[in-house]
TrEMBL record:
It catalyses: D-glyceraldehyde 3-phosphate = dihydroxyacetone phosphate; L-erythrulose 1-phosphate = D-erythrulose 4-phosphate. Signal peptide: none annotated. This is Triosephosphate isomerase. The active site is at residues 99, 169. Keywords: Cytoplasm, Gluconeogenesis, Glycolysis, Isomerase. Homodimer. Substrate binds at residues 12-14, 175, 214, 235-236. GO terms for cellular component: cytosol.
Amino acid sequence: MTDRIRPLLAGNWKMNGTRASLDQIKAIAEGVKAPLSEKIDTLLCPPATLLYVATALCDDSPLAIGAQDCHSLVSGAHTGDISAAMIADCFGTHVIVGHSERRRNHAESDALVRAKAEAALTAELTTIICIGETADERDQGQTLDVLKRQLAASTPDGAASETTVIAYEPVWAIGTGKVPTSADVEEAHAFIRRELVARFGGDGEKFRLLYGGSVSGANAADLLAVANVNGLLVGGQSLKAADFLAIYSAFERQFA
Ligand SMILES: O=C(CO)COP(=O)(O)O
């Protein structure tokens, strides 16, 4: 069943990118062409400052544009925050919530991540919910316990495979060049799949599960060959069009 899931290649620019980077977005938008774009979805999440202009740039491209975070409320006295409705207003179609950098740097709890995901669903954004263990948790053999807790507590009851994507990002793999073994990724993704099926029944089989953490053109094909890996969430290697498109090519080999 999982082999019919439409794969997703997503880039997260984090706090990188200025107007000078718009040529990279344009090059990515031009690079994600048919026929592969008919089989896989592509998404780029630039910083909020570039959101509106990026969606305009990608008007004629299959490349979707999304945001990296949203507030749980629609509007109000929340200096510095942006709402899911504002992202939709800029023609953004996706939002990442619960990234480990937000969980760590902004003390975001599972309950808050869930509230953000609910807000995103209300705004009709596709929501990418990130989960993943730290190095300490992994060393203590707690990986699956952490994934179970984060997944259960961060995912809204109203989530569905059409609207919600789960990204497994081991914290120790992000920006470090360290990547888990295929066996470890397979175990984590199989576990997440089982948990989703236990909660959402047959629809749990259809959720897209992304792997993220030090993905590059060199390791993308191996990661995509792992069972229950339905796409990738890419940080550093999404900033330059050439790097991102090299990862896109790996999708071509796996899914075309
Ligand atoms: O955090 C990530 C994507 O959300 C991964 O970042 P890197 O690909 O730079 O390790």
